[in-house]
Amino acid sequence: MDKSQRTLLDTIRANLSERHQLAGIDADSLKNYILGEMQTDIASDEDNWMSLDGMIGCIKDEHVKAYILNNLLIMPGHYHHQEITRKIQHLGHPSSIPCIRTMLENGFDTLQYTCSEDEVIAKWFSHALADIGTPASIALIREFASSPNEGIAAEMRYRLEQLGIS
């Protein structure tokens, strides 16, 4: 290998999207792979979760990353919902609002593994909605401030107070 080929190879190694392109990996195949792996028993293996999480972290396209995180949020059978919600919070993508709504509407039976009270779990979602910060996300906080589930309602009322919204 001559020096110019070596330089090109080093450049491509440093650029993940070019590496993916060379390997024939596009956004859809990456989405499908990650979500498929999470739906198998392999997702319960922490080493595999770390690998999948690393792949998610390398995705630059916010829409693709949000799509994956949103699907993982509503997917039962794994133990990473709080971590996924935190990633959704940091990403702040409006496409997460319907998935957060689904979690709030369906209750937290799939999150029993956390041994957390509803108010604690609702806090994850209130932070994510507040950081998304769109009128639709704030409207969802307002809506669930009147939830029949007192734990959810209390947290959403608290978040509205913290945001200075009544």
Mean pLDDT across all residues, rounded?
Answer: 86
Total number of beta strands: 0
Distance between the termini: 67 Å
| Biggest β-sheet strands, sense, barrel | none
**Overall outline:** elongated
Over the alpha carbons, how many angstroms does the gyration radius reach? 19 Å
Binned strand content: under 5%
* Helix percentage: over 70%
The domain tally reads 1
Unreliable residue stretches: none
Order of helices and strands: HHHHHHHHHH
Alpha-beta classification: mainly alpha
Please report the number of helical segments: 10
Protein name: HEAT repeat domain-containing protein
Describe the protein's architecture and organization.
The protein is an all-alpha fold. It has one domain (3-163). Helices cover 70% and strands 0% of the residues. It contains 10 helices and no strands. The radius of gyration is 19 Å and the shape is elongated. This is HEAT repeat domain-containing protein.
List keywords for this structure.
elongated; single chain; mainly alpha; 10 helices; 166 residues
